[in-house]
Amino acid sequence: MDEAALIRAAQTGDEQAFEQLVHSYDQAVLRLAYNLLRSQEDARDIYQEAFLRVHRNLHTFRFDCSFHTWLYRIVTNLCLDHLRKRKVRKEESTVVETEDGTRDRVSTIPEPGVSGDPERYLLSRELRSRMNQVLEQLTPRERTVFEMRHHQGMRLRAIGEVLGTSEEAAKNCLFRATQKMRAALGEFV
Amino acid sequence: MTCEKVQAELPFLLYGELSFDEEEQMEQHLAGCAQCRQELDSLRSLHAALDQAPDPVPAPLLMDCRRELRLRIREEAVEKRSRGWWQRLSGLSAPHWLTPAWGRAAGALAMLAVGFLGARLTLPQAARIEPTFDTIPVSGTRVRFVEPDSANGLVKITLEETRERQVTGKLDDDRIRQLLLTAAQDPADPGLRVETIDLLQQEPATDEVRAALIAALQSDENSGVRMKALQGLKRYATHPEVRSALTTVLLNDDNPGIRTQAIDLLVQHKQRDVVGALQQLMEREDNDYIRQRTQRLLRDLNASVDSF
User: Fold this and answer.
1) Total number of domains constituting chain B
2) Do A123 and B53 touch (CB under 8 A)?
3) Looking at the partner chain, which of B50, B56, B62 has a beta carbon nearest the beta carbon of A26?
4) Statement to judge: residues B187 and B282 lie in one domain
5) Distance from A50 to chain B by nearest Cα, in Å?
6) Per residue in A26-43, pLDDT tens?
7) Pair A176, A142: CB distance under 8 Å
8) Residues 67-126 of B with CB under 8 A from A
9) How is domain A105-111+120-189 classified at the CATH fold level?
10) CB atoms within 10 A of CB A97
11) Does residue B123 or residue A159 have the better pLDDT?
12) Angle of helix A15-37 versus helix A67-88 axis, rounded to 10
């Protein structure tokens, strides 16, 4: 069944079709949320809220834009809200209190596999840590645009559509993000 | 074009976001400007570092999210239905003293009553209701949907039943292997697929296992599963089918980590059967590490890097 047929079936209450639709996108959505928010719990919340909204409002989807764009608008709005609230609450610090004492959230993020040639992994622990710090310094929009362009491979035009802005504005955001990362990571690369 | 303008556009050149004409102008400038070329190299290095940076999403997280979503959608559906019932009931006779909580309880009682009444009324036609209450196993059974049918007084209940059974056996047991091969293709659970593939690669080398690993490498949607399959294929790296699968992955997989592992495996066994694919790869690959490895392998095979 192609995507349009799946959407129509899901709009009529076909739960299997809805599930299939979710499974076509949910890995990318979860990855986006996880990379942006750097927390399993937050990514899980975004996933639930995004797809519940899709489920509740799918009947209003009129194919005026692609489903991908419609879904990503929901997801990025949720992520941006989350990132902005985090900024407001001054929660940029990655240090969290746990039952076992104070821990750095960065240290709980799994390392990439280290089997094989270690030179393959250009990122030392220090570089990864620095990268996380830089990402925290980007504005929520810069971070979102960077994530969508660099890791999700979306075109700037599509990113503009998702964020309700122009391609040019998305381009400027990406440029600023790149500059900041170069400035912070220059010594490593 | 000035250096300033070129350097401002370099990130977009790397992302392939420039028009054909813009790219042409950039290339011309870069050909004659060492400073801008150095700037481009530096940006490429940054990209290569960033390519390695994203943290893999833990495989169990996706499964947890899917389960939770299914549950919450089901809860919302049940809530919506019971709200609908209450609204219908309250529309008939809603005394002012009846609070919503009382109302919900009354609604539930009414549904129960309709259910029992329906069952009693239809007992002579028991064949229409199956299974009967006596045969429904309580454990491992979940009510998924409740649909009252006011026209004939029946309540249709959709059950989701999970019956777990454990089997134990050695990895070289055919029956165990068949179960593992089936689990390796379970579309709903990437975590299970990762674990299964991990076990399969410990099994004695057989055509069946090799084929399952190749299928997972080429078509599994989850990169964690594909990576595991790739590791499992290391011992078959000289097999023509495996080498063909590795070149397909090298040309088509969107995950640079997997492409990196694929080229490393091909490099270990220098055979000329991959020359064409490697030359194609040089046309499209933008990951510096993979390009360097590919170039080196082509040189080792005495093949031209530029023959595409």
Assistant:
1) 3
2) yes
3) B62
4) yes
5) 10
6) 999 999 999 899 889 999
7) yes
8) 68-70, 72-73, 76
9) Arc Repressor Mutant, subunit A (1.10.10)
10) 8
11) A159
12) 40
Q: What DSSP state is assigned to residue A147?
A: I
Chain A nearest-CA residue for B59: A27
Helices assigned H by DSSP within chain B: 3-14, 20-32, 34-52, 59-92, 100-122, 174-183, 190-200, 207-219, 223-232, 240-252, 256-268, 275-284, 288-300
pLDDT tens figures, A8-24: 999 998 988 999 999 99
pLDDT for res A100: 53
For residue B4 the two structure tokens come to 């300033």
Q: Which two tokens stand for residue B209?
A: 């296992």
A:B CB pairs within 8 Å: 113
CA distance A182 to A161: 27
Give me the pLDDT at residue B37, please: 94
Query: Hey, where are the domains in chain A?
Result: 1-91, 105-111+120-189
In chain A, the residue whose alpha carbon lies closest to the alpha carbon of B227 is A113
pLDDT tens per residue across span A112-148? 444 444 544 445 567 777 777 888 889 999 999 999 9
Supply φ then ψ for residue B260, to 5 degrees.
-60, -45
- Out of B138, B161, B184, pick the residue that ends a domain: B161
**Residues B245 and B274 sit within 8 Å (Cβ to Cβ):** no
Given the candidates 3.30.930.10, 3.40.250.10, 3.40.50.720, 1.10.1740.10, the CATH classification of the domain at A1-91 is: 1.10.1740.10
Phi, psi of B148 (to 5 degrees): -70, 135
Within 8 A of A171 by CB-CB distance, chain B residues are 12, 17
Nearest by CB to B46, from A151, A171, A181: name it: A181
CB contact under 8 A, B69 and A51: yes
B30-45 pLDDT tens trace: 999 999 999 999 899 8
- CA of residue B99 relative to chain centroid, distance: 46
A112 with B52: Cβ contact below 8 A = yes
- At B123 the pLDDT is 39
Q: Are B114 and B88 in contact (CB under 8 A)?
A: no
- What mean pLDDT value characterizes chain B? 77
Rg of chain A over CA atoms, in angstroms? Answer: 18
Q: Please report the pLDDT score of residue B133 as a whole number.
A: 52
Q: Please state, in angstroms and rounded to a whole number, the distance separating the CA atoms of residues A129 and A106.
A: 7
Which ipTM was obtained for this model?
Answer: 0.79
Mutate one of A46, A128, A151, A189 to test the B interface: name it (highest B CB count within 10 A). A189
